[in-house]
Each structure stands twice: as structure tokens, then as C-alpha cells.
Specification:
The chain contains 27 helices and eight strands. With about 725 residues, the chain is mainly alpha-helical. Helix 1 (about 55-80) runs antiparallel to helix 2 (about 85-95) and helix 4 (about 120-140) runs antiparallel to helix 7. The chain has helices spanning about 55-80, 85-95, 100-115, 120-140, 140-155, 160-180, 185-215, 230-240, 265-280, 290-305, 310-315, 325-355, 365-380, 385, 395-410, 495-510, 525-530, 530-535, 540-550, 560-570, 575-590, 605-615, 630-635, 645-660, 665-675, 685-695, 700-705, and strands spanning about 15-20, 215-220, 250, 410-415, 425-430, 440-445, 455-460, 475-480. The strands form two sheets. It has a six-stranded mixed β-sheet, sandwiched between helices. A two-stranded antiparallel sheet has the order 2-3. The structure holds zinc ion. Zinc ion binds near residues 16, 501 and 529. Zinc ion (ZN) binds near residues 16, 501, 505 and 532.
Amino acid sequence: MRMSECGMLRVKAAVCVIVVAACAGRLAAAQQFGPGNPFYATSTLPFQAPPFDKIKDTDYQPAIEAGIAAQRQEIEAIANNPAPPDFANTIMPYEKSGLLLRRVRASFNAVTGADTNPALQAVDKAEAPKLTAAEDAIVLNPKLFARVKAIYNHRETAHLDAQQRRLVELMYGNFVHAGASLGEAEKTRLKEINGQLAVLTNEFKDRLLAATKGGAFATTDKAALAGLSNGQIAAAAQAAKRSGREGYVIPLHNTTQQPVLQMLSDRDTRKAIFDNSWNRAERGGATDTRDTIAQIAKLRAERAKLLGYPNFAAWKLEDQMAKTPETALTFMDSLVGPATSKAMGEAKDIQSLIDAQKGGFKLAAYDWELYSDQVRKARYNLDEAEVRPYFELNTVLKDGVFYAATLLYGITFKERTDIPVYNPDVRVFEVTDADGKPLALFYCDFFKRDSKRGGAWTSSFVSASKLMGTKPVVYNVANFQKPAPGEVALISPDDVRTMFHEFGHALHAMFASVDYPGLSGDIPRDFVEVPSQFNEHWKDDPQVFAHYARHYTTGAPMPTDLVAKMRKAETFNQGYMLTELLTAAELDMQWHLLPADASVQSPDAFEAAALEKKKLALGAVPPRYRSSYFEHIWGNGYSAGYYAYLWSEMLEDDAYAWFSQHGGLTRANGDRFRAMVLSKGSSEDFEPMYETWRGGKPTIDGMLKQRGLVETK
Ligand SMILES: [Zn+2]
């Protein structure tokens, strides 16, 4: 999610990361692991919530190692079973295996993402290659694969129900996709590559975290910060104090553009901050990621070749909704024209304003935010500061996000202060279903801190599964500016969007109604953003909006003319925003179309050539992420998958069009969507599942209309 402290409805699609915990098994003797370790047994807390009051940093490593060992034994027992393979003696125990590892990894992923420290980073570094090796040992276990294959081959006659058959098909596909049908020599090389990639991925993340921290802008000259509000200047002074420096510090956000660029009137300061951002991971030494990403790209291409694919993207997209890179490229290429022509029109408007002010310079990327905001104000007379007082975080959460979910799905929320959390900023709610039964636990962790990586994301501590008797325990993480002690959090419209977005992911996880753990996750990247982006639409629904957008001191609703101005401004700057997303997505795909024999000597030159080729080398509209700090594709599993945000956007705008045609926000519509889409997990193929609910194929029309890229008829 683009973090815009002062931005106004900046991003159509809130962009976040879904963290999918993988499971594993093998290696290492369990040391210092026993009943004293909080991961030793299933949590006795409600919903099996992690006992963060008991978990210490030193508990993770022994639990991970014991978990790997335990799962290895479980897998060996399945693989060596002398009985002929069937669902009950192979698939079922496989689904039940790795419980300890799942338990510890779920908590470990949460804290390393949202509240890390050098000790946890060291554990991550040490365990990542072991976990990868353990995963490989499972999917490349020939005896286990032989059993899965035999069951797969007889799936039509084995009296399996629909979910069981789907599970067998997915599992077989995953094994083959991971290399289970390779010969021994290739498997050995594959394991080596996977191990190297795990190390390099961690190296990338560590370097980037340090690079982003190191890229903070520091000054002792208050005048350089002209344009910032008193609150922002105070926050910058606080940030300086925290890092033991004189003056003011403005930390970097993970995107190319930085929120403060919208307010800073000093062009030199803007340029300095932008350059810090753009070059954050290209300064040589321990924070430079360029060698690392070139190595990752090369190894991914080699792995794809080993598995029989021309490039990494072809391998990666095989089990996605789009199926091939060509489909994704055709889709993206069709957006380049409408997006860039709109962006160039916006650039022209901005240049006119700069000229009218006798600026005497040509629009650069670091001017865009400031002047586009002025154009917006001139054209729509809308000031961010007018709007924020109507978006108080707690009210947005309870009377907006939760309220919309209650209207659509009948679920209700109650805060629980008795559930332990990993950081005092985290809050927990119990979610009750429409029938009065407990549905899930929901955690939210909204404020930015140095120990948290950038962006916003959703993941689970516990997944829904009837087989395991578990209900979902889900969490949202974001990076909103934390208010000073005693102050309330007044968030931006962008932050509001992020909250609805991430909660859409949470709903998808909470509603999963499947028998097996293997069917509750594993959502293709190009579908996983549909429920979240779809949920964003409800923030603007008149009934929902009126309920949460109230002045934080008076409780008065947002004045209707302000609402109208805000709505009108929504399609503003959409050319820029779509182009920066598209540019990042095309960049991602170009990296992953590299054949195995290609070697990128200069990531900078490669990046420039890729953008040129796609007609996206627009100086004033840089990619949302540059290659060297594109964490989604090098660190978080969105490799050859960043297009998925746009693809999902096409689907969710199409889905919203269905709601609009059928009476909008009603329980009937919500229940139907829940039953036919949100509750399905990955228990059905996504294309027919969606089209059955929709009653036809999705089109790009809704997306272009929502973005204001076509004339509304
Ligand atoms: Zn998302």
C-alpha cells in the first residue's frame, strides 16, 4: 500500500503483500526443546491463539528445528507405509503433518515481518536454508511422490468427494511443479539452487531493510522542511531523537515516491529525498542489492530451465489464473496506451501550473506530488487537511470496516484485551458469525515502527480447517503514522483504503469453509487480491461512509460538498498511478522472462532497456518500485506476479459491477458472494468459480471506468 500521509485518494488499488506460510520437514536434531517451549503443544488460548506472553526470541529456533525433525519423521512414516497408497493413508496424514512447524512458523513470520530485531534476523538467516531444504525433501521424496501419483492416477475411481479430488490434483500439481518428476542429478541441482535462493532472498531483505533505514533524509535546517505541518515537523524531530541525531529525520517509505514530497516547497529538499529513495539500495557496500537481485534472477531462470520451462515466468504462471506470461503481457500491454496517455495529459497540466508560477524548470518525478496536489486543489478545491479530521482510525475501523462487513455478511466484532500480543500496538477482536457462533480472531497492527517492514499485509496464525478442527486467526499489518502520545490517529483517505483492503483479505481467510488445510490457502497470486480490492469499494458506499466519516471532535458527518469534492477528485492522477503500477509490473515480468543463459551485468541498464522496450520510460513517472528495492518480487513471492494486482483489479471492478446491478450492499448479495466465492478457499478452479458467480466472463470495462480512463456513458 502506498503510504501517503498527506495524499488524497492516491491509489486505486491498495497494494499489499499476502504472506503465505509454507510448510516443511527434515534436518537437525531438536535442541533445548521440550515442554518448557511455548510452541511445544497446541496453544490452549481461545482459537489456539499464539501465547505471545510466553514466547521469547530464543524459543523460535529450537522449535523450528524440532518442527522440521518432527515433520520429517511424519513424512517418512507416510512414504514407507507398506499398505497400498490411498487417500486415507497418504493424503490425510500428509495434511495433518507438520503441525509444530506450522505453529512456530506462523508466529515467527509475524514477528520477523512486523516486530523484528537482530536476534530474530539471525535466526531467520540460519533457518531459511534449512526450511527450504526441508520443503525440498518432502516434494522431492520419490517414495512419497510415487504414492501421491498413484492416488492421482486413480482419482476418478477412488470414490473421492469433490474437495478430496481437488486436493489430490493440487497436491500432485505442486509436486510436479516443484520438480518431483525429475531425475536424481537434476533433483540434486534443484535442491542446491533452492538453498542458494533462500540465502540470497534473506540477504536481499536484510540489505533492503538497512538501505531503507539508511536512506532516511536528515537535516538540521528547519527551513528545508518548509511546507510540512507542525505535526509532521514534530514527528521528524522525534524521529531524529530516536536515532540519536540532531535536527530532523524523515524516514523513507518503501515506494519510490515519498509522501512528504507532496508538501515540501523547497525543490532541493524534494530532490534530495527522492534521490535517497531512488538510490537507497545502490550506494555500494552492505546496503547495495544489485548483485543479489542479478544472482536471484539468474538462479530462478536456471531452475525454470531444469523444470522444463523457457523462463521463470512461464514456470510461475502455470498454476495461476492467467496460466501463461503471454496472457499476462497481452493484458498489461493493452493498458499501456490508456495509462500513459492519461499520465502525459496530467504532466501537461502540471507543467502549465509550474510555468504559470514562473517556476522555470521542467517537471521531474520529485515535483509530481507537490504540483499534482496543487492542480488537484485548483481543480477540485480539495485540501487533505480538511478531510483527515473525519477519518479517526478507531471510528473507521469499527463504524466503517467492521460495519460494512456486518451489513454484508452479518458478522459482528468484540474487542478482546485478554489475548496476548507481540507488540503493545496490536489489538485483537473476536468475530462472531451471523448465526451467533464464533467465527475467528482478528488482530490489527496499524502503526509504523522501525522494526516493521514497509507496506501493509495480511496473514494467519491459524488457518480454517474442518479436519483439524481449527478456526481462523488472522491479522492485518499496516504502516500508518503513529500519533503522538495522547493524540488520536487521524488517517488519510489512502489509509482508509488500506484498512478496507487488508480487511478484505482477512474476510477471505475467515470465511474459508473447507475440510483440509491444503484447501484453505494456496490462492493464486492473480486471484488473491480480488477479495481485498473488492472490499475497498464499500468505503465509498453512502450508508457506510456516513457511518464512519464523522468529525473526530464533534461527531458531525463530513459536509456533503466536501464528500462531493472528494468523489470528484477520485479519478484525479489515475494516469500516473496506473502507469507507476504498470511500469513496476512490466519490469517484474521482464526480469523473469530472462532465459537461463542470460546474465545481467548491470541491473540499472537492464531496467532502463526494459522500460524503453515497453514504452514506459517516462522520467516524470518512475516505477512504483525500482528493481533494486522491489521487495515484492525479490523477497515476497510476487516474482512474475506483480501483474496480479492489475489482473485482480479487472476482476474486482467487474465483481463490483455485478453488485451495483443487483442492489448493492445487501445481506443477500453478501451471503451469495460468501457462499460462491469467499468461502471456497482453493477448493475449486478459480476461473469457472468466478464465472459461475458472475454469470459470465469478466471484462476490462469496469476497471477503465473506475480509473476514469474512459468516458462514462
Ligand atoms: Zn492485498
